[in-house]
Design brief:
Strand order of the largest sheet of chain B: 5-4-3-10-9
Structural class of chain A: mainly beta
CATH topology of chain B: TIM Barrel
Strand content of chain B: 15-25%
CATH architecture of chain A: Roll
Number of strands of chain A: 5
Oligomer: heterodimer
Number of strands of chain B: 10
CATH architecture of chain B: Alpha-Beta Barrel
Order of helices and strands of chain A: EEHEEE
Shape of chain B: globular
Radius of gyration of chain A: 11 Å
Helix content of chain A: 10-25%
Strand order of the largest sheet of chain A: 2-1-5-3-4
Radius of gyration of chain B: 21 Å
CATH topology of chain A: Ubiquitin-like (UB roll)
Largest sheet of chain A: 5 strands, mixed
Strand content of chain A: 35-45%
């Protein structure tokens, strides 16, 4: 299934939900915020939010900044 | 004693807020944060790196019980993006249960070269974020009118730039900062005004504090100093010195000298007398 994650088109299998996708990238235990098609999806909804073909997803975290 | 600073519901004893960007490595950052004595530190919101080895996260080097994390909207050039980033930052900090989850350091920038704020976008984003329940600490230029508008829009703190971000030029226009302080604190003396950006060395912090600013926010001045840890220590003392001098009340500047030793009882010949 083709989706766009952080601006990159990827072909992903076995990730029916956002929670699965976050886990797929090894971010399950990290502080991460997720946008699905420009809409913020709170962490508690990740397991119930299904990913569809063509979805645009942002996975963001905190980095050093001023 | 007015040594603590209240920003919204948070009371902090250090008036220095420091950024976490541009350090050579995380260990150095951690030591510099410690030396600065800061209780509030800023961070940015960015994409996770998914392909290359992500390595260690900045969060592994920050004691979340010690620091309040202030997420910024750096890199945003319009209100919509800044609002998006603020919400993402809140989502991350909520997961960490950090007091900074209610806060955002709002930056809506005009262009990449000057990094000066876009006043229209900043005001628009500030209004929306206040509506969304954020405590907005708002980066702005040293324009007093823009500062007044942002306070009216509900900013928890207005943070005028001393000079452009990362420029190290210090407080370019002390008169403008003075006017901002006068306008924003008129009838509201506890309203927090924090000088944000442009600090190059310790005396810049002292000058900002001597003018009556409630705090100073800086990053590059420490992170890019030859010895960041020693500079962080200097910045801490500079902030304390400037605050104390402001509270103590400086003497007026005079054109001519006034003797410190008494004239009475001098045995010397005084020219012209």
């Amino acid at each position: 299934m083709l989706i766009v994650v952080n601006g990159e088109e990827i072909d992903i299998a076995g990730c029916p939900t956002l929670a699965d996708l976050v886990e797929h990238f090894g971010l399950g235990d990290r502080a991460v915020a997720v946008e699905l098609n420009h809409e913020l999806i709170p962490r508690e909804q990740h397991a119930d939010t299904r990913i569809r073909k063509g979805d645009c997803i942002e996975l963001v975290t905190l980095v050093g900044g001023g | 004693m007015t040594s603590t600073l209240t920003i919204g519901s948070l009371e902090i004893s250090s008036r220095l807020i420091v950024g976490t960007g541009k350090y050579a490595n995380y260990d150095l950052m951690r030591s510099a944060l410690d030396a600065s004595g800061a209780q509030v530190i800023t961070v940015a919101v960015r994409r996770e790196r998914l392909v290359d080895d992500r390595g260690r996260s900045i969060l592994d080097f920050i004691d979340l019980d010690r620091y309040t994390i202030l997420p910024n909207t750096a890199g945003c050039f319009d209100a919509a993006d800044a609002i998006r980033v603020a919400r993402l930052g809140r989502e991350i900090l909520s997961q960490m249960n950090n007091p900074g989850r209610e806060w955002v350091k709002l930056e809506v920038l005009g262009d990449r070269q000057t990094l000066l704020p876009d006043p229209v976008g900043t005001l628009e984003a500030c209004r929306q974020l206040v509506k969304d329940g954020f405590k907005v600490l708002c980066y702005t230029s040293d324009d007093p009118i823009a500062a007044v508008r942002l306070k009216e829009a509900g900013a928890t703190s207005v943070m005028p730039a001393g000079s452009p971000i990362g420029s190290g030029r210090g407080i370019a226009n002390p008169s403008a900062i003075r006017i901002i302080l006068e306008r924003l604190k008129s009838g509201d003396p506890d309203y927090p005004v924090i000088v944000d950006a442009g600090v190059g060395t310790a005396s810049d912090v002292t000058i900002a504090m001597e003018l009556g600013s409630d705090g100073v926010l800086l990053n590059t001045g420490i992170a890019h100093a030859r010895d960041p840890i020693t500079m962080a220590t200097a910045m801490k003392h500079a902030c304390l010195a400037g605050r104390a001098a402001y509270l103590a009340g400086r003497i007026p500047k005079r054109l001519y000298a006034t003797a410190s030793s008494p004239w009475e009882g001098v045995i010397s010949h005084i020219p012209g007398e």
